[in-house]
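Follow-up to my post from last week.
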Amino acid sequence: MATEARKPPSQFWARLRGILGGHAGWGGFAFQILFVAALAWVGYEIFANARANLQAQRIASGFGFLSQTAGFGVSQSLIPYSETDTYSRVFLVGLLNTLLVAVVGIIFATIIGFIVGIGRLSPNWLVARIAGGYVESVRNLPLLFQILFWYLAVLGALPGPRQSISLFDKFFLSNRGLVIPKPLGEGGLQVFLAAVAVAVIASIALRIYARRQLFKRGRIIVIWPYVIALIVGLPALAVLSAGAPVTFEIPQLKGFNFSGGLRIVPEFVALVVALSTYTAAFIAENVRAGIMSVQKGQMEAGASLGLSHGATLRLIVVPQAMRVILPPLTNQYLNLTKNSSLAVAIGYPDLFSVFAGTTLSQTGQAIEIIAITMGVYLLISLVTSAIMSFYGWRINRSLGT
Amino acid sequence: MAGQGRLIEPTCGKLTWCCWKGHTMKRISVGLIAALAVGLSCQAGFAQTLKTVRDRGVLSCGVSQGLPGFSSPDDKGNWTGLDVDVCRAIAAAVLNDPAKVKFVPLSAKDRFTALQSGEIDVLSRNTTWTVSRDTSLGVNFTGVTYYDGQGFLVKKALKVNSALELNSASICVQTGTTNEQNVADYFKGNNMKYEVIAFGTADETVKAYESGRCDVFTSDISQLYAERLKLANPADHAVLPEVISKEPLGPLVRHGDDQWFDIVKWTLFAMINAEELGVTQKNVDEMAKSTKPELKRVFGTDGNLGEQLGLTKDWVSRIVRAVGNYGESFDRNVGAGSKLGIARGLNQLWNKGGIQYAPPIR
Ligand SMILES: N[C@@H](CCC(=O)N[C@@H](CS)C(=O)NCC(=O)O)C(=O)O
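User reply:
Got it. Predicted complex:
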């Protein structure tokens, strides 16, 4: 008689219990449900209470205000804006200004931070001390103070617009900012851009080819003369054949200010300088910690291969250090972005200033505006983190871990 | 309203939660706390400001961050000014002590949120009465302490004589003010180009103007005079003749508490009526003994007008004893007897050529 194989008892419920309740089992699950319910209830009460209060006080609510006319001017805008535009446009103007400061600030902070961080580890006594002094002094002064310092120092040092420092009568520096000629597109622009694109793509292809040759055959191909020839030559040819791609609008002093040209306002410069030098001090420490986390033997190995100090750092040490540097670096990027909201102190029209400041005080809709603003900063932070995680993932992959 | 009975009832507007690090977080959390407080403050509290103030024993009064003549602290931290006197007069009427005031310095852009959220009981900070503020911000203006208008301050060296010569100028202004909007209207209306740079506080605005970032500093004219005193060489700067807007400045309270609205409103009216009737800080106790029917009503020896307001019969004496009548306060703080030396002008009483007018106490 064939014995029937006994079916194992179903694991379904046990598994579900594990998934839902963890070690605590069903009890834990019930507790979690209760917790979520309580949280939802508190959330609902806050919401309902807020609504009732706003109604009782007859404070305007809802998002209708976004389509009302703002009625105030903004000193710097990346998109066309006038005082007859709506609050939603103001939001966009502020957001772009915040992103501009954040991106430019992050680039400079990273460059300065790496230079100072590596400088602190330099065998040269003087360089190491200067870098150390920089970190200690900048890191320990309040950021708001530094922003105001740069703003008033920059402004104090510059002459009025009528006495501007000028370069070839085309570039003007005064306490109204730096005014430069503004490029205006001409007929040859498309051909020119196409030529630039072709040159860049060809250069990248060349580099890929050269690396292949290096890894497969051990052949070193020097590509930079070709790259320069491509990048300079092709666009030059385009200009010769299709005419100038741009003409320049030269700024002119009219009345109190310059008209025409492109202007970089002092508020922007002061904010970028303050944010990037401040954040750089922290990044420098991260970089130093990252490099120190790489074993000394790696440096010695590089030296014994005959690589120079710089090449060893660049090719061997820094790529390994990046793994340690990256998470705190992301943190610093987020800090810089959030700190940019101090802009209102020097009149730079960032999101916090024009939206959570002026718009809020004109409409009085604190709840909606603070919610939108927080959401936006959160989103910027999440996107930054995501980009940095992706970069980290690539580093780990290329290091084969 | 008290019977609305929501289940969460935290102490009104006293939500303190401040453990976030970093500047931004601090700033955002200020807004967040304010926003939450607007949401959470229990309604009963809003409807009974008088009781809340009496229970607390001090009046919480929103003022500027330092504007000579209107509200500014001296080196010992004592606040003085026309707006400050209104706070003290209310405290005198309600708590019988003009010193029982907690002054909360507020920037232009934070002031309304502070009132909405219940952080302050009354805002007395050179604030312009406009229809949008009176309605959508959920506040009620109670009267006008100072009839003002917006003007421009320029360096004399620029040799500008009229605002119409300001085409293409850079203008410094404080953010969150009516001035920020008026200047846009004025330049657009006159087809002039301008660049406006808006700062968070008055000090930052004035510093930027002084450093040459702007050709012009614009604000209510009384405030131009006040801020000019802070400049290194006040005599190098001039106020242009144009007045580009109406800026009636006055105290305000939250919507939803009619009794408190009345008290704040009639405190100012009492000061103005006192001037009209010739009642001064010096003679108030003398006048209170008067047998004239009108004065008997005012001083509460006849009738119970004060009690109807929720105050005491001697409410007017308390106010005038504390801060004097409107004219005295004006002279002491912004007028002839002060560093500002502003003429009474529009703020003279209606029967002396001005437009300052209060409904009768009867
Ligand atoms: N009356 C206007 C403007 C009020 C205002 O804030 N003026 C500035 C002039 S600079 C001021 O008084 N600032 C003083 C401060 O912020 O402490 C309004 O209500 O919007």
